[in-house]
Amino acid sequence: MNYYTAPMEGLTDRIWRQAHQRWFGAPGAPARYYAPFISPPENRVLIKKKMAELDPAANPGAPVIPQLLAKDGALAAWMIGELRKMGYTEVNLNFGCPSGTVTAKGKGAGMLRDLSKLEVFLDEVFSQAEGPISVKTRLGVTSPEEFEAILDLYDRCPICELTIHPRVMRQLYRGEADRAAFAKYLPHCQMPVCYNGDITTPAQLKALEAEFPNLSGIMVGRGIIADPALLRQAVGGAPASKEELRGYLDELYHGYTEAFGMASCAVSRMKAHWHYLIQRFEGSEVFEKQLRKAREGWEYEVVVNQLFTLPLL
Ligand SMILES: Cc1cc2nc3c(=O)[nH]c(=O)nc-3n(C[C@H](O)[C@H](O)[C@H](O)COP(=O)(O)O)c2cc1C
């Protein structure tokens, strides 16, 4: 089974991808790291700062798969060509982002609202772009039943791998991933299928593998931020030690401080990681407010030192 890490804006950036590989790489390392979405610029002039995230020199190690958030097929095909020039092979299309600012523009999961537009988009991309293209999708906008018609469109395209996050757009991240709907549609998928959603423990990962042995991959998102050794444990390895977590988090913090040029920006990025990770520290509730209030580097460092006096769960 291939394990992948999910694209997560504000979390799985190049600094995280490098730190994760250094501290929690093989065995059980992710086969691929999916990068958070980028939008192709309408004027077709690449934005240096955004592209720096995907600079191959800054992304050594396991393959990184860039992801596009777009609604104009010709523009997406052009951007895929630009990514190929940088050396990327697979490019992923995002039909899953449920954020209101994205879906209001008809992008992300908003693409699932109008299937005639989705069809035109897919036709343009697959006729104008070369090389492997994968898709990450939700089941629909309001109801999982919508997926029957959506899958019908996907099945007509040479999608190299379809990652299904079995929630609908309206759900955002509420409720549970709909495993029953996933199981219902899986036999109708003509392409390799990757499952994504709500995997937070090695036992859940193994149970999913046993339930769906024919999957091409399993993608984990919030679970690997909460427990960066999740995949290592899934292949029989050790849980993350305190020393590893400290090294990993310090590397992230210093990496962000250097990249943003300001500790306060790094603090804000680190809080996003701690949002998921803090539950691993027994009795961490007493420090949650203090961490939330930290603005300056020194304030953050004081709380983190305190958190590391706690036992791991
Ligand atoms: C903060 C955050 C940012 C995300 N950014 C992206 C993104 O850039 N592209 C994408 O396809 N999905 C994005 N997602 C969705 C995740 O890739 C994944 O589908 C979702 O978290 C469910 O998987 P999980 O339960 O393993 O976390 C994001 C999710 C979160 C929580």
Task: Describe the protein.
This protein has 313 residues and is α/β, with parallel strands linked by helices. It has 2 domains: 2-234, Alpha-Beta Barrel (TIM Barrel); 242-307. The chain is built from 14 helices and 8 strands. The protein has helices at 14-24, 48-52, 73-85, 100-103, 115-128, 147-155, 179-185, 202-211, 222-226, 230-234, 242-260, 263-277, 285-293, 297-307, and strands spanning 2-5, 32-38, 64-68, 91-95, 133-137, 162-164, 193-196, 217-220. Strands 1-2-3-4-5-6-7-8 form an 8-stranded parallel barrel. α3 (73-85) links the parallel β3 (64-68) and β4 (91-95). The longest helix has 19 residues, at 242-260. It starts with a strand and ends in a 6-residue tail after the last helix. The model has no long low-confidence stretch (mean pLDDT 97). The site of flavin mononucleotide has 22 residues, from β2 and α9.
